[in-house]
């Protein structure tokens, strides 16, 4: 039944474009500028795909952009839904499974996150080396979709080491002092308390956000290679000396957009997959 829903979305896209992406990229809010580097072949607003989860925030419905970055065929997701909007985890990760069925072998995830590792500061970028998803429901709960993956998938290397190393290499070459660390996903939408951040830090997390781990799990279940980059938009609660606001998150994203876009363009457009 769930697989039928995904196949139905696939069918609707295939009525509009035969484009086969090699890589898929989820653009965190504020990374829209990356789409300027895509030689666009087709665009499909999510609202035109029946059964596809659409953001509850007006004006943020989002769209798929299919096209080329360098010679790489890419499917970019501009906008995505979050668990805190009220969607079931299965719907939150539906786009990932759909991207796999469209042909994507690699998933590049970007997001905004609060930083808690020592020495981290707002404006840093962080390559996600591992994650903690224990505080949100698994997207794989319920009947397994055998057509997509196995019941008990291995998660010992969710974030592909070779791809993550490559991102570090490119970052270095463009003079970006990129960090590496563990991302922890919360359900949100409220930011964390200082006590929660202390706990997360003790558990081994370096950055916290409200997305990504569920997507990465669904992608690994589907056999995709995964990598992720966080924009550290703020220091996490209790470490920051001020209240956390969405405005600060958006402001920092804007400031890092140029270097983030350059890094992504060189990574995705270079022959790295
Ligand atoms: N916490 C959770 N999610 C976030 C944060 C944060 O501090 N900053 C950006 N997304």
Key phrases:
30% helix; 273 residues; alpha/beta; binds hypoxanthine
Q: What is the fold named in CATH at topology level?
A: Rossmann fold
Q: Quick one: CATH class?
A: Alpha Beta
Order of helices and strands: HEEEEHHEEHEHEHEH
Number of strand segments: 9
Radius of gyration: 17 Å
Poorly predicted segments: none
CATH superfamily: Nucleoside phosphorylase domain
**Number of helices, where a helix is a run of at least 4 consecutive DSSP H or I residues:** 7
Largest sheet: 5 strands, mixed, barrel
Average pLDDT number: 94
Strand arrangement within the widest β-sheet reads 5-8-7-6-9
Q: What small molecules accompany the polymer chains?
A: hypoxanthine
Shape: globular
Q: What percent of residues are in strands? A: 15-25%
Q: Classify the helix fraction into a percent range.
A: 25-40%
Q: Structural class of the secondary structure composition?
A: alpha/beta
Brief summary:
This protein has helices spanning 2-14, 89-92, 94-102, 161-173, 194-203, 213-221, 246-269, and strands spanning 23-27, 39-45, 63-69, 72-78, 106-115, 125-132, 179-185, 207-209, 225-235. With 273 residues, the protein is an alpha/beta fold.
Can you give a write-up of this model?
- With 273 residues, the chain is α/β, with parallel strands linked by helices.
- It has a single domain, classed as Nucleoside phosphorylase domain (Rossmann fold, 3-Layer(aba) Sandwich), CATH 3.40.50.
- 30% of the residues lie in helices and 24% in strands.
- The chain has seven helices and nine strands; from the N terminus they run H-E-E-E-E-H-H-E-E-H-E-H-E-H-E-H.
- It has a five-stranded mixed β-barrel.
- Helix 1 packs across helix 3 and helix 4 crosses helix 7.
- The longest helix has 24 residues.
- Hypoxanthine (HPA) binds next to strand 5, strand 8 and strand 9.
